[in-house]
Task: structure prediction
Amino acid sequence: MRGFKPINCMKDVAELKFDTSGRLFSADNEEIFRGYTTDIYFVKSMEIIKALGLEDTTVIAEIFASRPGIMCGTEEVKNLLEGIPVEMEALPEGEPFESKEVVMRIKGKYCDFGVYETALLGILASSSGWATASRECAEAAGENGFICFGSRHVHPAVSPVMERAAMVGGATGASNIMAAKFAGLEPTGTVPHAVFLVVGDTVKVAKAYYENMPPGSPVIILVDTFKDEAEESLRVAEALGDCLNGVRLDTPSERGGVTPQLVKEVRARLDRAGHRHVKIFISGGLNPERIKLLKEAGADAFGVGSYISGARAIDMTMDLKEVNGEPIAKRGRIPGITENKRLKKFL
Result:
């Protein structure tokens, strides 16, 4: 059991004060567990229920999705509800779901878990949206795989959640340190253009990378900072030889971005110079359609950022379907439990 109780009445809300000096405006784990991120109407609801002596009312709540997607957030919701006397069934993470399909069911006293409706719906909506976009990229990349580079596009409080969701969806790795560690992996990534601009020469950076990174780290060098990508790829390949694992193309949109023709040229020039072992890694503005085109052109792996981080959340709705064992529902919905044999017991 946690060592504190969640907020559960309007008096608690009135007494709640936050010192905003020197802190980030995101909620930490304890603040979420205490219910500080809930919508106020859930606190008002519980106060009314208790005032009428109905605090022991047992309900069954179902959560359904607004559109098809990939389930993610189940583990976080489980952790959020753990220690509360409720039962929870849900789709496991990584499972696909259809529009209007029930993805989670919770049974217990409404006043024990109602304060968390905002948080758990938000967890499922955002995480499933990110995982769904990631699955689209994974299907486009196929056996080539891709890693998630999306942290720079979201608030740092949720960046590990987002990149973890990307891995649930099918990303083979993540650049975000916390996200990778949560998944039992080491973070993946090279170095940004800033290093090359500070040092002044791509080959010099490449040699320093090889000499200073931990043994076994893949040596993949960015080759679009100063010179033509094909020319720079050859310079780096000649300097490192068999020690070079790959080159990364991240050509900016101002120069047309990474095109299939550019990938074909780099591949051909590397092969002709005897560097067939050097892989081509692509990043910058990728989406499933571009991944497919660049893969066909010869790209070996991809880094995807904004397509995943900017994915639209999949709206989740919670409905009460039983109250004290009696089927019930608001107008427009069918009373009683919705059958879904794919749900697994988590609590």
Remarks:
- The chain has two domains: 10-128+312-345, 140-309.
- The two ends are 14 Å apart (CA to CA).
- The mean pLDDT is 96.
- Residues 164 and 182 are 7 Å apart (CA to CA).
